[in-house]
Structures are given as structure tokens and as C-alpha cells.
Structures
1.
Amino acid sequence: MDSLSSLNPQQRTAAEHVNGPLLILAGAGSGKTRVIVQRIAHLLAEGHARPEELLAVTFTNKAAEEMRSRVQSLVGDDCSALWVSTFHALCARLLRREAPAIGFTRDFVIYDSADQLALMKQVLRELHVDDGLLQPRAALSRISNAKNTMEARSSLAESAAWSLRGEELVKIYDRYTAALREANALDFDDLLLKTVELFDTSDAVRTRYSSRFRFVMVDEYQDTNRPQYLLIQHLTARHRNLCVVGDPDQSIYKWRGADVRNILDFERDYPDAAVVQLEQNYRSTQMILDAATAVIRQNRHRTPKRLWTDRKGGARIVHFRGADELEEAAFITRTTRSVVAEGGDAVAAVLYRTNAQSRVIEDALMREGVPYRIVGGVRFYERKEVRDALAYLKLILNPLDDVSLRRIINVPARGVGKGVMDQLERLPVEHDSHDTPLLADALADEPPATSLWAKVGRAVDGRLLTTRATAALRAFRELIESLGEMAKRESLSVAISRVLDQSGYITDLREERSEEAQGRLDNLMELVSAAREFEMREPEPSLAGFVDRLSLLSDVDEEAGSRDARIWLMTMHAAKGLEFPLVVISGLEEGLFPHSRANGDDAELDEERRLCYVAMTRARSRLVLTGAARRRVFGEYQRTEPSRFLDEVPSELVDRIESPTLSGYQRADSGSGSRKGRYRSEPEHVPFSYEDEDQSVTPVRIGARVRHPTFGVGTVLSVEPLTDDLKLVVRFGVGAKTLRAKYAKLEPA
DNA sequence: GCGTGTCAGCTTTTT
DNA sequence: GCTGACACGC
């Protein structure tokens, strides 16, 4: 069904392009994925390249998998030799082969953001930087920014807006970098930087890969950063068959170092480039496209483009403003539910600016029994127990990994507490390790003596600590060594089970006999299942490969909720590249969207607006914008003003609905008078009740029978006074629940 | 050394 | 409203 003849002339030109650089400027919904897939298929079918000579780069694993499967279904042949990968996974793969060329061993570990944070905390502690003065997160963000933009390390010294002296920051940077090296670890940013360094330093490597990849394609090119740009330059140096696809209006990752100039200057980089503009939108109605266009038009510094659709007319945009976020959530529930009621396989998306917004919406959907799926922000792999398990695996693979060692040396408790750790750290560094270059150290049989692992060894062999501490450390060393041996013999999933078992982790949780512990056990079982799945899918499953995969899993690669749910929740960032018949964009309030962090910064406001454009153009037929007149932030209610983006949508395209519970002064059209358009009450729905800030809490006694909207009728087991509220434990049919009297919406039963 | 409880700080967006 | 850091008691 899908074939070249199904493409429009521009799409076809792009798909049939073979040699030389190609820039595809693809407006929202213009079918760019189809074009890339068709082009790959075309190159293969016409014999221009074998699968292993093609490289396609995306930003998420999900996008990569989808691309591979679409090529697969088009070509029919086995496409496993195709390189379809994220930037980071590509770099990890290259470095696993070539790491020694830049002074790392092949068994380096990847530090994800949690590892980075742990390492930075350690660094700040070592340098005696008061973390009140410089939060570890802030330091990391500054360093990451420097790496992503490849600014010189010395430029950190000139950070004027910094609460700490610039030279301090340089010191922190240096120590952090050194600590990564000593741990034989690379952080996310390093994966890119070190790969660029690899290509810069090794002619052999550069020749090998730039010869190999005859054709390279990069999706979402407007969101590439400097190291990614350089990496692509290296990879395409030989054949120059680079095809990039993107849309400057959809650049939304500047905060991560993305530089839209990469796409804007493509024709300067490649004067001989063919340029194709995809301007027909196949996705949205005219109504939606008009609204989105009107918003993005407000941005300064942009090249206007003519995006058009033949889906004339369409339903008007709906804007609902509730009294608070609970009303907003209730409205969203009713609206999206209609999609479920229609049957078929249509999906509605609920988009928000910040992950924190999902909670209220989830609650509302759950209360109504509407199944939903949440994309990103799920953090299965950030759960404590999963991270602990991962830390064991990382340590087995690379004993130099201090962050992982620190994490699990006393989990479960085995008598190595703070006291022992302090003494261990204070062990003098062995003599020769000081001036030996890291390369030699890392390649030597013995790990560098600076690592905690080495110190454990030294403390045990030399009996440098108390008998008790020595015994505990010896047991730990033997455990890790034997697990390491075992992991070499056993399959991946068996190895993980054994690690959990022999470390005492499972036993410890089992003995707890709490619901929480059971949940953790379930999560660990899920990790083992993930390993089993990995074994079946990968041609050569290895522990290192599995750990890499987990480290490089992006947020949007993770999902939770019912698999077949037809309501999807995600951030607007996560929605990039997707489309839905119905899209709800929530939280259209000043300070939330556009986010307050962008306030007063025109460039950042432009980026928020592009994000709004991305979100709006996800909609095929219906677009609903929602907000609330007040919203709880950190538990406190705050009044909000409607988002400026609402003003930017022509009022004749919008049906406005206001909650009947909004009081006069909260109404948007009574104040400045700037907001036009008629408001009407939402038809066919009952006004909501919600509690006021100053509402007193109804007294509840132990033994009272109460009714809860979700859990039904129950008995109050305990009452505990809090400031302004009561904490209740109530036994329902489904079990005991802890509730706050103020929010639980209990009625006497 | 370990487990529990309290309090503060926190939230953009993500590879 | 949740998480992590620290303080306290055993």
C-alpha cells in the first residue's frame, strides 16, 4: 500500500534522492517519517547500499524502533544490519569497540543522571563546597551546558551570574571530570564528546566509519547540538551522503544545547545540497492549522512558511477554564472519555508542560474508572530497588565504579556504615598511583589504588580496620568477586536473579512482609522479565549490553498504565513526532505555560511558543485547550492568569467554556477586557463542588462509617491531627488507606 | 550501626 | 504532596 507512487511530488523527490547532501524542511504533519522510510527502502531496493551501510539517527529509542519496523515491513528482508539508533546509543556502540583509542577501557560504565548527581555530591563534599551555596544539580546543569555547547572549560570561570566564584566552578568541573575517569565512567554528555574526540584523534577510526556509512540520515535535525553536529560531520566526511530532516519551528531543546543554526546553516555547510520543502500537512484540519499558524507567527526571527491542508474547515478549537485544577481534570476526563465511547482505535492525548501536572489528571481518570496510559515520567528504572540492582550489575562489570559501590556496599545492611566508609576513604593512596597516567592504570590488571574497590582490598589484606569491619568488607569483596565469576558463566536473566538472591537483597525484602516491600519485589521481578525479553530479542545478549540499554533508555521510552488504553498522558516534549485525533493541551496559564522560567527572556519565550506550536499540531481533528483560575503549587493555592498563547489564537476560531463556579473576578473577560470571544457555560454538566482554602475540616471519630468516591464505604481506624487538617486511616473493602480529611472527599455513610 | 521519624525544599522540558 | 537529608533513640 505504501509505495513511492503514494507520495506527493516533493516527498517523492526527497525519497528518490540518492547522492549528495539533502535537506528536507518538513512542516508539521507533512509526512517526513514516511519519506525517510521510503528513502531507505529505495536505497536498498535499488542496490545503492547494503543495510549495514545505512545509518539513521533519531532522538529516542522508540522513534528508532518504529523506523526500523516500518522499513522492515516495506522491504521485507531482514533489516537487523541497519543501523537505526539514537545518538547516544550510537556513541555507546562505537565507544564499546573503540574506547581504548581515547584512554578508556571497553568496560566503561555509563553514568545516568542519578549517578551523575551522586558523583557530584561526592565531589562537592570532597572540595568542601557547601551545597547550600551551590546545589549539586545546578553545578551539573552548568557543566552539562558547557559540554553540550562545547564552550571552553575556562569559560566557566567567567560565569558572572553564578553564586559561586567562577574559579571554584572550574575546580569542580576538573574534579568531576577526574572522578569520572577514575571510575572508568562516561556521563551522557561524554558519550557524545568522547566519540567526537575519538574521531578527532584517530584517523583509522574516522576512515573506518566514514567509509562504512555510505548514507546517513538524521531526524529532528533542528534539535541537534554541537557535538552531535560534529559527529555527523565526521561520519559523512567520506561519502557526503547526508540527509537531514527537520523544522526550525519545532526546535524545543535549546535548553539541552540544541542549536537551530545547524539546520538553518545547512546550505552554507553544503552549497551543493538539494533542498526539499514539504508543505502539505496531511494531519490537521484547516481550523487547527490556522490556530497553530497564528501562534507561531508571533515569533520573531523566523522564516515564514506556507503550510497547507486540504482538510477544509473542521471543529472549532475549545477553550475551557476551570476554577481550579480539579475542575480542569474533571473536564479533561469528560472530554477524552468521548473518544473512548466512540470505539475504534482512536486515541486522545492529554499534554502538559510539567510532569507534576499529570497527577491530578490521573486521579480524575482513575476515579472515573477510565483506563489511561502515561508516556514518560514513569521512572521505573529510577525506583530505588531497581537502581540498587543496577548498581550491583554495574559494579560487577566495572569495580572502579565508586558511585555504584557506595550505593550498595551496605544494601542490604552488612555492617559497613558511615564510620567504616569514612575510615576507608581516609586510607592513604598508594604511592605509584599518583603519577601513573590513567590509561596504563586502567589497562593494568590491578585497578588504580584510588578506587574504593581497591581500598576495600587493601583494608582487608592489610587488616587495617577493626576485626569486625574487616570481616564485613571481606564478605563484601568475596560476594562481588563470586557474583562476577557467576555472571560470566550464566545467562543474563539468571545472572540478575542470582545477584539479587546472593546479595541478600531478596531475603531482606521478603522478611519485611510489608506491602511496600512486596511492591519492590514485584519491580525486581519485572526487571528480570525485562532481562529475559532482552535475551530473546538481541542476537548477542550480554550483561553489559543490557545495562547500557537501561542507562540509555529515554524517559519517553517508558510507559505505564493499561496497554490498550485510549487516553495517553505525556508532556508536550514527549509528544513531538506523534499525532492524535483529539489533543487536549492543559495548564494554559501564565507561569506554567509559558513557564515562569522563560519570563522576561524573549528567546526562551519563543521556545515556549514553538512548544505550543508542536503541541497544537499534534491534533488531527479536535483541539481542546484547558486551564484553571487557580492551582495548587507545592500544596498552596495560587491564582493564575490565562496564558498569552490563548490570546494569540484568533477568537473566531475558539469556543470558550467557563466553569459556572468561577467567581466574577476570576473570569478572564472581566479584567483587562483584552480577551475577546463569547463565553458560555458548559452544557449538560453538573457544577462541581470543591473545597475552599479556608473550609474547616469536618470532625471525624474513630469507628465512624464514611463513604469515599473511589473506595466506597469504610470504617475510620485512626485520626491524627495535622496543622489545618486530619490524617485518617480508613479500612475499606480494598484494604486500609491513609487519607487527608481535607482532600479525600469523604461523606458520612 | 541501624531504623524510624521529621522537616525542608522542591519542579520545567530529557538523552 | 513527595523525596531526601539529617537527627534521634535503640
Note: The first helix of chain A runs from residue 9 to 16.
2.
Amino acid sequence: MKAAVESAQTQLVKYLRERGLKRTEERMAVLREALAFDGHFEAEDLQVALRRGGQRVSRATIYRTIKLLLDANLLRRSFSSVGKQTYYENMLGSRQHEHLICVRCGRVIEFTSDFLEEALKKEAAAHGFEFKRLRIEIFGECSTCSSASLD
Amino acid sequence: MKAAVESAQTQLVKYLRERGLKRTEERMAVLREALAFDGHFEAEDLQVALRRGGQRVSRATIYRTIKLLLDANLLRRSFSSVGKQTYYENMLGSRQHEHLICVRCGRVIEFTSDFLEEALKKEAAAHGFEFKRLRIEIFGECSTCSSASLD
DNA sequence: ATCTATGCAAATTCTTTGCAACATG
DNA sequence: CATGTTGCAAAGAATTTGCATAGAT
């Protein structure tokens, strides 16, 4: 995983150089913290993590950098549908995974399915699309919540 | 489709009665307009459509009613990822369908797959979840855009 | 009558932007 | 030293909420 982190950093540096953008401490720090998350996180989580590490990065820069990292394919938007914030996750452990979300308590369970991925890639191809990525979300009530709902 | 609209209205009335909520003109009007949309729409589209039909319904009520309709299973959130608004679609033509989205031009193509639905319902069950609904989004570049990107 | 709904405007939340000071290539 | 970058605070956009009034059961 160490190697993957380094390669992500290299990838960012390359991305920046290629378009005449600058390698700043803030950008590298945001990437570092983003890579440190295991699961999903939101903009504020990043800022908190950075602050905890002694880095003060403004909210504006966090947002600007997130955009950059999305474009550089170092982050992806995670599941989308709880609350109004946007959730992200890094592309390490790049195993594509999907989300099963409890609509009551917000608990999120990840699952994977090569077979679904394949089927969806074919679907894209069938419509002449060049496949980029996919997102699958299943909403339901987790066992805890559904047994608690005797209201 | 006429019948489906009526049944949706009945469903709302029942939903309201069951929880001691009131059958108001606004709620019925919002439902009526929501059912009139063929594809996806957002909160403002609803308000515009209502106004066009001579109904003045406040933004607050639109939002409050959308929540109600979501909960009553008369609407669902549509694809999620272009811009920051939320898109909805009614449950008529209740054929569950999913979205294939061009990340360049925003074109949205709908597709269906019973077989994927089944597989995902099983996935939910396997984790002890009571299945509610699902969303599948495939992102890619449509043929028009990918041939235009010779940059 | 009672209790829920609505409209309005203010408040929130998340995200973006303008601008002056600053840092990188 | 020319540009791109940052932080700050203000601006925006979408959605929510408090409260007084209106309306449904």
C-alpha cells in the first residue's frame, strides 16, 4: 500500500506538470490525507484530518483540490445519497465496490461484484458508450433498524 | 396510463389518511404535476409546471411535498450526479430503469435490467437488509463525444 | 375545535468566487 | 519575475425551518 501511495503522488505531480499547474504543499497534503482514508469521507473530514496533522488548509483550497484530484482520477465520488454533502473515496485498493445503505440510520456496507461490473460495461458498450465508471447503490433498512421499527 | 395516475392519487390519499395527514390541494397538485413529467425533473421544474397550470405553491411546500411523495413511494430520486440539484422521477411506467450518463455532454440514456435488479435484491438480503430501492449509474462518454475528443 | 399545512422570510448547509498577498517554476 | 495558488470573506445555490395564519377533519 506504501507503493500505491507513492505512485499516486507521482501521478499527481505528473498531472500538475502536464498542465502547467504548480506542485504546492497544500495539494500534496490534501492528497496525502485523502489517501489515508480507508473508506469514504467528505470535504470537512479532509480539513479536520489536515488540521490534526498540523496543516492549516482553507476550505476553498480543499474544494479546489478535490476537484483536481477527481479529474486526475485519484479520487472518485462515493455513494451519493445521504444528506447533502458529497462523499469521496480514494482510488487506492482500487477494487471497485458498491454501497448498500440503510435509509434509517445511514449505515453503509460495501460489497463487490465482478459479475455486475461486467454486465454494466456491456450495457454501456451496447449503447456506444466508452465506459468510465459506475455506481450502484442499494437502499434498504438494515436488520437493526427494521426490527426497531415497531412503531 | 390514466388508470395509473388515478391509482397514484388514491395511493397518496391512503398514505395521508393512514398517518393523519391532510389531503390538501397543494399536495394533490404537486402529485398531479409530478406524474405529468415523463422523465426526470427537479424541484423548480415542479414549481414552474404548477404555476403554468395556474397553481401557486411555495417553494417550501414543494420541498415538503416531495419528501412526502418519496416516502409514499410515488417518486424516487433519479440519477444523482450532474450539478448540485436533486433530480426526481415519478414511479409511473413503474418499470425500474437505470441511467447511462455521458460525462461530457450530460446526455442520459435509460436502460432496464430485471436480472441486475434480482441480483441486487439478493445482495441486500444477504446482508440482512430489507430492500427498498436501488440506483445504478454508468458514466462514460457517448459516441458523439468520444469521437469529438481528438484533443 | 383541533391539529396539521401553508407561505414567507430568515436561516442553514455545502460549495464557489473575487481579490489581494504569496509561492512556485 | 510571470503565473498560478492560497486564504479570507462574501456570494451563491439548494433546501430547511420558525412562526403566524389558513385550512382540513
Note: Residues 2-18 of chain A form the longest helix (17 residues).
